[in-house]
Amino acid sequence: MSERPFEENNGIEQDAGYQQTVVPQAAPSAAGADVDRNLVNLSYKCPNCTMPLKFDNEMKRFVCEYCDGSFLLDEIKDAADGQEGYDWSEYKEEIHEEILTGTKSYVCKFCGAEIVTDAVTSATKCPYCGNVLLVAESLTGMLRPNKIIPFEIDREKLLTLFNAFVKKKNFVPKQFKNNPVLKEVQGVYEPFWLYDSGVDGQVGYTATKTRSWSDASYNYTETKYYEVDVSGEVHYQNVPADGSKRLDDNTMDSLEPFDYSKMIDFEPGYLSGHLAERFDVDADANLERTKLRMWNSTEAQFRGSVQGYSSVSRKGSSLRQFERDVRYALFPIYVFAIEYQGKRYDYAVNGQTGKIVGELPFSKSMYRKWKWIRIALITAAAYVIGFFLN
Amino acid sequence: MRAKRFLMMLLAVMLLLMTGVAAAQDTGVSATGSETAPVSTDGQYYQFSRLVDLADYLNDEDHEEISGMLMDFLRDAKLDLQIYIIPSVESFGCADVYEFAERYYDDPKYPAGYGADRSALFYVFETDKSTSELLKFGPGSITTWGLMKGKFYADYYMRCGNAYDACRGLIDRVWNDLNRGHSVRAARTDMMNEANFHPYHNEKISRMLDFCGIFGQSELDALETRLTEIREKYQMDIVVLVAPDSDGKTWEEFADDFYDYVGFGYGDEYDGMILFVDMDSADRGYTITTCGTRGQNTYNSIVETIYDDMLDAFKAGKYYEGINVYVNHAVRRINHMERTESFLGISRNEIKVSTDDDRVVDPDEILKNSVKKNLEKTIKNIRKEFGTDVLVLAVRGTGDYYPSDYLYNYYTFLGYGEGSRQSGIGLILVDEDTEKAGYEIVTFGNASEKFDESALNRLKSMVGSALGSDRYDKAAQKFVDKTKFRLKWGHYPMTTGMTVVVFLIVFAVISIIASIKKAANKSVAKAVTASEYIVPGSYRVFNIQERFINSKVTKTRRVESSSSGRSGGGGGSHYSSSGRSHGGGGGRHF
Question: Which domains does chain B have, with CATH numbers?
């Protein structure tokens, strides 16, 4: 497969090595060899000329490069299955382990090649024609997501975002800063579970009030000890948790927050041009993780109500969740890697907000230089100030 | 009645001899009173005002409050405390305050006293004369010291025209003495105003005040006689106060107040000094404070010597010996500073050094020649550039003189100094055959303005640290160098220690900031809260319940400034609550 021109110009190096397993089963056809995959959608055909439509992130419409037609999702929705989102609060009775494991084989609707993916793939790229395929059975029935946040950041902007991100950081080697090459760039809709829950209960605190006074010889401090109990409730909505084993949970946590005001009901058409996965971590597995987050925040809320004390320390709590609900959603994520001095640095980008997370290389020499120059300057300044104020 | 009159007179004589303040003997007046007059006793309190204010010192509201306090005091202390603020006892047809008190003690209509013993205290303040007496009737358990404190605080506020705090102060001190406590209500009115204090000289009162009985009568008599002689000969009031506590104040605060309120001091500036011995077992020690220009000038620089010399005797319980050390030092100091007509056989103005004479005087060859040469060169520059003379005096001993007196006399008798005020600064190094080498620094003329108290103390500290053991050259060099630096820049250079401290602080702060910046390069972190997903307005508090468990009070001794620190030396100026300036302070525990 030939290199895309933008990859050399904008520093983004394209690579198909994303974690999905894509195995070619037949000779590739000539179709779509150099097509920008971000602008290709093979799931929908143009109602006018039947050629493939692409989804334009900026226009928020499907466009046809052949007849210049543009369409809203509703206008081409005939191709979609029209299913409603599944009620995930009942999922446990329906999901079986086997449907989340193993491999699946499909035939590309555009070039006819047979491709094999793992069971969690919802949208993948045909390695022969480069078009993106939606895996219908991963997006229907009980596996159909309830919600989706579409990509708002174009792939071309990643380098700009990364440069802005790295510019604000200290002690990053100049060679890395000045010429980053983004490799293995993938835009993928990542599965997330969204939890709703109320939390109520009681938190106990040990609190003190102090007052001080003096006479001619002594300073006195009176400390009064109290036990304070606060009871109340608080409700949470859409607390996210990563539903995929492939990406690190902490990395996904760090990409928060997503702007839920732009979260919409799932339609397969939004997957066009991007890879997508379905969950392989069920909702129960994240319950404890999200519960701890909610409890920590609940205790913080309760703590804010304990006012007027000199010190407050938590003694214990008794909390419970109620009115729980869960939904399944796909969130837009970019992942890429940068190699520097033989070491790989992985990064993830919130495809909606552009927030970047990941570890940057560290220059010890810059660190030492930064530190000692300031120590020397400030010490000298302090000495000069001390000289005149002494 | 004649017998009672006799007892009252006897009491008055004892007061004059002992304190001049209050009737002190528990065997004092035990009035039988009128045979038929009923008195207050348990459950029976005669409701007449114990406060008589014919001078209108109190407004109606304060009058009512103090009257209420005195009734409460009667009930709680079982002691009838009565306060009389009157123009004079003569206006009542009484010859003296004792006759006045006796008359109202036995008033058939308002009999004073509590219980069968008819215990009572009468505080009588005569506004025309601004004098008072605190008289005790019946046995009671109040101590002489309690009476003393109550009276001198009441007198102080009365003389300031603040009758309200005078009455409260009296009630508090008497109550505290009965209950052996030290908590006193703060005065309502701030009287830290010299304009409100009217100092007076109390010639009658004893200068040897022992409220703890640590001296025998013969010792008291001997010391009293000696202090009187000193006062008459040198016009300096030397006072010794031995008390069971410091009334909740610091030693020097209490000594200053006591000196002022009781009326010590000689002449217009109330020259003198007081040794206060606090026998409180929790805080036993002593301090010396001074008053008046002569008192302060002649004392501050030798305070450490006096404290040290007294310490062994006080630790051994030889208080009489310790007091004599103090008195000897005081006399010696007065003699050296003010009575010396000649010094080392030289009369005043007999010899005057020229501008070319050496400023490093080292008759015993203590300093190296090369060092002396450098010092002379630097001093010459200092004199030329800053108009301040510098004298370095190195001697093997100072004889009977304190080092500071030796230097002072050497400088003034030989006429060192620049300008009409003989401005300059001097260092004396004393190479005595002792473990610790001695040194002292003294300023003259307007040099004392360039080297204020803290600057002088710091210079002493720097020279002292350089001196160590047998390092006179280094100490002299440091003295001259630091003097020049201060005269040039108005301050001293930052010390090596300070530089190191600054470096360490900067190093720590920058390292922390660098670590934070370094950590920011790792942006992956587990989410532990969900605050941003709280539904707005969904937080509801059902109940907040508070239960009191217990309380604890801790007390720590206040850190005092270096100029008045107890464990350190004295020498700083401070002010009593009258607003008057005092010197000395510090002290020693024993």
Answer: 2-196 (3.10.310.50), 208-339 (3.10.310.50), 348-489 (3.10.310.50)
